[in-house]
Amino acid sequence: MTTRPDSTTEEPDIGAGTDADAAGRPHTGRRRNEQVRRAILDAVMRLLARADGSPVTVDTIAKEAGVGKQTIYRWWPSKGAVFLDALTDHAVTVVPDADTGTLAHDLEIVIGASYTGAVAPQTAPVLTTLVREAAHDPHLAAMMRDFTAVRRAALHAVLERARARGELAEDADVELMVDQVYGVLWYRLLVGHAPLDETVANRLAATLTAGNAPKESTT
């Protein structure tokens, strides 16, 4: 009997894998090959961008990425989890952690990047598909909460830095400010009644900055 190379450090699925081959390999979930992971996540973004509402299946993801279907099942607990991983990976590259020294400018950068990124052709279908999938997938719904918590925490940090600089009133409700930013994003994205663009982002940034500024002393 011959011994296979160490399959915990590579996934030979890329470009030539089959489900039969994948089923015969030892479990490799502990150490994922980054090239294969990247191929799968990029495939998800491409497929969802051109799906136009049609279902994207694990079969189509595997075919697009050039991997065995079992590789996807081994690394992610559900199809929705693959979608969310792709979105999370994309969000990190699209939305910067702004720290320019002024709240108004920081908010313009973060809100602007979040809004334009959300409606981008390669992103909007992912977000709307995740919302639809999460409605009947409790595990994905929990992962969505984790994803939004990370994005909220990043904006929260921007606001707390502004508070430390004295740009926010002591009683400013930071959680409500975060809700306003992402509430506008999700409502306009899902309902589609109004645009999500740089103009909206800048107006909201100005409103939040002015409306939560320290009150001038009257003494």
Question: Would you spell out the secondary-structure blueprint of this structure?
Answer:
Layout (H helix, E strand, L loop, with lengths): L18 H5 L10 H18 L6 H8 L3 H7 L3 H16 L8 H16 L5 H11 L3 H27 L9 H18 L6 H14 L8
Defining key terms:
single chain; Arc Repressor Mutant, subunit A; Tetracycline Repressor, domain 2; 2 domains; 10 helices; 0% strand
Question: Major beta sheet, specifics?
Answer: none
At CATH level 3, the topology of the largest domain is Tetracycline Repressor, domain 2
Q: Given the helix and strand composition, which structural class is it?
A: mainly alpha
How much of the residues is beta strand, in percent?
Answer: under 5%
- Describe the global form: elongated
Radius of gyration: 21 Å
N-end to C-end Cα span: 89 Å
Q: SSE order, as H and E? A: HHHHHHHHHH
Tell me the CATH superfamily of the largest domain. Tetracycline Repressor, domain 2
Helix fraction by DSSP (H/I, runs of at least 4): 55-70%
Total beta-strand segments: 0
Give the C-level CATH assignment of the largest domain.
Mainly Alpha
| Number of structural domains | 2
Please give the CATH architecture of the largest domain: Orthogonal Bundle
Average pLDDT number: 82
Uncertain stretches:
1-30
